[in-house]
Amino acid sequence: MKVGILGAMAEETEAILERFKTTRKKEIGKRVFHEGKWEGHEVVVCFSRWGKVAAASSVTTMLDLYDVDQIIFTGVAGGASPDLEVGDIVIAEHLIQHDFDASPIPTIQRYEIPLLGVSKFPVFAKEVKRAKLAADLFLQEMMSEPKNQQILKFFSPRPPQVHVGLIASGDQFIASPAKLLELRKDFPHLLCVEMEGAAVAQVCYERGIPFTVARSISDKANHEAVTDFPKFLKEVAKWYSAEIVERILKTL
Ligand code: ADE
Asked: Which CATH number characterizes residue 236's domain?
């Protein structure tokens, strides 16, 4: 099994690269693809950069260059549901592109991707289940360490949880309760917002490649998001991604 792993944040990708020895490296179009073996699987790892275009370009190049059987995308996200707290993990079951709107054309719905006729990209049930188990196991193991409990207490009033459901992606860092309300009006079950997942989902959907999107909640997409986000990234997000991906690889 060959697994393509992409992360939207340099800090997370660096933490992932510390877990295995890179045996070969290829650089193309500002992306570096690191090949190696991790948990018995061949892996290719790439820092995707931010936003839908960067992510779509990274995953497309990866699929063109390497014969990967599946894609795992990790990163942070802003919580969009009041049920989520900083430090929670979201596993995507569906992904939408919240800034896509070709609806002035009468035959196309808001959020629908023209020609595909899809607005919510589904993740295969097998990948959702595997990622949920990996994230549950990670939180269980992590919270058994008093040191980690202390760090997370600083971010959240309760122990972290895993959620499975809808993720919305767009080329906007959301730090506005008004924007969140607008999105939640159209998608009442929306869990979180980020900037890449649904672009990766579209590329994988078009090619029939199984994929996983796992996000840790770094902020609540409100006015505090701009300060919570870098703090979480520096102190927590690094270990989240590497630990979740490692546990997914163990079950493949
Ligand atoms: N990634 C992490 N937090 C985010 C937010 N508030 N909006 C978009 N992407 C994010």
From this structure: 3.40.50.1580
